[in-house]
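Blackboard transcription, Thursday session:
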Amino acid sequence: MSAETHAEHAHGHDDHHEPGFVQKYIFSVDHKTIGIQYGIVSLLFLLIGFFLMMVMRWSIAYPDQPLPGWLSMFFSDDWKAKWLQDGKVTGATYNMFGAMHGTIMVFLGVVPLGFAAFGNYVTPLQIGAPDMAFPKLNMMSFWLYFVGGAIMLASFFLPTGAAQSGWTNYSPLAGLQQAEYPNQWMTGQTWWLLAMVFLITSSLLGSVNFITTIINLRAKGLTWMRMPFFVWAMLVTAFLLLLAFPPLEAAALMQLSDRVFDSSFFMPSGLYSKTLGALEVSGGGSPLLYQHLFWFLGHPEVYVLLLPAVACVAEIIPCNTRKPLWGYRPMVWSVLVLGFLSFIVWAHHMYMTGMGPMISTFFQTTTVLISIPSVILLTSLIISLWGGSIRFSVPMLWATAFIPMFGIGGLTGLPLAFNLVGLHLHDTYYVIGHFHYVVAPGILFGLFAGVYHWYPKVTGRYMNNFLGHLHFWPSLVFINLLFFPMLVQGMAGFHRRWYNGGAGYLAEAGNTTNVFGNTVLEYMHLNELMSTAAFLLALSQVPFIINVFLAWKAGRKVENDNPWEATTLEWATPTPPGHGNFTFEPAIYRGPYEYSRPDHDEDFLPQWHEPQQPEAAEKESKSAQV
Amino acid sequence: MEIPFTVTARKDTGLYNSKVGIWLFLASEVMLFGGLFSGYVFLRVYADYPWPERVLPVVPGLINTFILIGSSVTVVFAWAALKLRKWNQFRIFMLITLTCAAVFMVLKGIEYKAKWGHQAVRMDDFVILEGHTHPAGIDADGNVFHVGGHASVEDHSDGPHYIAAKTDDAHGGDHHAEHGPAVKDFRTNVVVFDANELVINLETYHEGVIGGILEQSEKANSANWTLVQPYVGRETAREDEQIILSAGAKLSLENLAKAREVYLAAKANDSKVRTKQLSDAWAKVKDIPGNKERPNHELVQDENFKINEDFDQFLVSPTSTVTFQTDEPITFVLKPREVRESAESALLADGSSLNGQLNTEASAIEMAADAIDFTFVAQRAEEKGVDPLAAVEKTWIIQNNPQVAAIWKAHTEKIAKLEEELLEKYGTDKQGNPKRVPTEKERYRITWQELVNYGEGNEEKGVFSGFAGPDHTKDYAKHFPEVLVPREEVNLETKFTPRWNTYYAIYFLITGLHGLHVIGGAIVLGYFLFFGKKMYLNNPEHLANRVEVGGLFWHFVDLVWIFLFPVLYLM
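(Written on the board underneath:)
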């Protein structure tokens, strides 16, 4: 079957009754619609998270200057009177924005975009399934996520404001935060926990759905080692979410109980607060317990963020180099090992807690071990580029940029794995620089690549090439100007939670006794560079937003169902795929990345093409993958 | 469009979709309860207070264990009946399962209710008292009296019994009749405060808190809150100042809202004016040649950086508090958790404060103690290297309550006897130390059974036990000693809720979450029972699959209980 015939099938396919607007676009059970819903909502959350960050960056670079109009125009006068001091960002406001920036970016932005949006749209298509195994559950996941996100945003408008204890919400800080408010159910800190319960439930249902779908709904002939790497990565990600999130749910429930029922799960004895005096709680709890439960999720969560991006890049690179993915099998094994190891590295976030050298050494060892599968993944992607006749399409630009960017992020993490170095760098901008390199230019670049890559399948139109370049190049430059100086500042000892960028530590000119103050003075000018880069980075996203909307209606139409001449099964569907996805019973005859096969005329051989004669090359191609 | 393998199993995996799904879901549930159980281990290992052991009633827990195991069996029978296409048999077994779930939850409810009605007090010297507080009321004059009816109050007459009063002559029992009904019934664990001044912060005040104050004031009927100083303000500098609330204005939520609106508007106005001042100052200092390149922190200290104070005329400077007073003090009965009291002021939860006089007598906690526990005192004494017995003797309760002191004396004698008995029975080891000694709990905790035994003059320990702990409605409750604890001696007082200590916190969290699972599972199984007929007729195998999946979940719920019961009830 050729791609052209599928296009003809696209319209004659919907013979059953047409669902209404609400059923089709809002409470839809179709995995593709749900994927798009996830994509749109999570991109909006990314935008909101970015905005919070810009306000913070203003405060860091210009702590004494009022917020400029273009940043403060979104706030009401009453809000400004309460949360800004003479138009300047206060410490409390900075904490609130910082906590919510992290929360929104991680739980409401990147995970839903990478795992939920791409996973939902692409996974069932790539395995030849008509939909997810539990479509209604899938819809429920999305709406739980939506409600969780809505609660999170609504908490900004509570009298207490939103959560203010960092995205990690460490107890007892988080337990005491806003404790002076009479009704604890109506505080931002409590709503954070309630929202998290919704988000966690959403992730759990989603991951059950993904794993079941991948295990049980694979098309005929799609054996495990013929699955595209994307599906493997989604499978591992789903397992991470499934097993790592519940302990955080336990922690969230405990913290909730601490807040509203005054229990002392995380409250040590003899706690005294400046505003509340000696606390009327029993004490005897363990703050360390919270950190263990949090990071038991927190670390696998990093790989939940990362793997979907690697998955996108691993699809885009072979398609654009026109040669098989190098080391498919090692990559699959690496991702499995990575998933397993990610469960036993969590306490490397806790070197400062004094949990003892034995435990620190154990987690230091496992942390160093986990770099092995990570490096295998990245190296395979690099070698996949070798000798290819690369098509530098826009998705490929993002995918190639992902490799060095994620490389910087990963390599700057190595020193942090070591206990001694970790103690020095803990909570400095070095850490911020490290994980932002992983998440922003790393993961987000990979996800942008995915957006440009699958957009033609979703809408039937290409995104504009010029706008794509206008999006990519400035983003690449400014994001590095934003994050690289952080590594420098961090090594000089800049703390991640300074709301005024270090102005409080400055030494008087010529005062040589204030050594740290002089260091701060030396590196503080970088603040303005980074903040300017952040604002320009925001500007560089404008072409993307225009592109998404413009191309939806006016983009160049795709010539056929497989515009990138790719080999995986999602390109065998009509464009855009209708309800039920396939117009034929999909069957799989070969591995996922059969590009430039010497025995084939075209430079790609899709998985679903029935062999004309018994393929003698089948065995050879298998060895070629490895 | 049909999703494959919803009913039939896929050949190579041997599973239908929802069976894969439920196993995955149960895996995540294992992690959830695993997190909670590891929390339990963590809290217990790092507890810095005597961890409560075997404090829960074992009998209801044991019955519940068998009920859940039984229901796990019947749910399998129900599934098997469906496989055999025996609808009625399915219904019977499913009904039994659901009945088991209901009985389980009822027993759980009884257990919970006993905890929520049971008062605990931790004193400043770490003596722990458990028991029931006495019911009391307050009349229109602010006199606090016993409502009576408590088994342990031996001298209760027909009329109310005053425990604390503002005037001496109020002590007469008949006095009460002239003053109308009690304002409010409560347990004698409240802060009683006579206030004639109320200071409210316009920004932070909370409708619920002020509403509660208003409600109590209205019931007291004796006086009204009136504003002392007029609240004058304006929203912007363009307007003239107006009297928003005149002096003598009554306290009401509407009046407060009016003042708050002006206050917030004025604050927003001032903020805008000052933001403008600051922006202009920056614009000016940056205009000076060469300044653009200089870092901001230098500029802000520069002499050229000047705030233009001409703008100050546009400030409207609102006041943030309003003060109300009454001619006659009003007696407030406040929950201890919602107020921070001192001799002359009571700070409410929203930052408002009542000024006046604390009624220390009426604020004391009066209770019939069903357990007196010195284990925490002993533990702290041992940590400090002090003789624990001496530390116990020095505690406030032994010094001030002769009844408790006598009980403690009798208890120490009993322990001395027990020590001898153990020595006789088990002998000494090679070093000459006794092989067995009384446990810390035996030494320092006086349980309710022991209290009753003392009261009845029994030497031997009685064999009675309560279904869910001591029962204060039973006749034996008269032997529980009466204690009156002044509030300043109290370190922490609470019912047996998650607040009491981390043991009860984790107990309520795990059993509560388990209870929610029971309810959730029962709802799903009940749905199959009551709404499954249609599916049974259309596709009986599908229903059987659903029941199988539900049954797997039910087994998991049972399994959690089987771990939970020994960990929380027996260890």
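Lecturer's comment: Chain A is about 60% helix and 0% strand.
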